[in-house]
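Lecture notes, unit on protein representations.

Consider one protein chain, 63 amino acids long.
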Amino acid sequence: MKRILCIDGGGIKGTQSAAFLTGLEEDLDQPFGRYFDLIAGTSTGGILVIDLAQSPVDNCLAS
């Protein structure tokens, strides 16, 4: 089974997605890049995806 994460855009609402994903990543006990086979996003979600694939969510919120 493949794990796919898709994050929608929404401008400033992307901060809500990042905040939610921070909690989810803590529950997974590993970075998203290791847990999901495919991570995709549109607009703001695409920007989050680029950062998520490279580092933990906490780093996304700090930048």
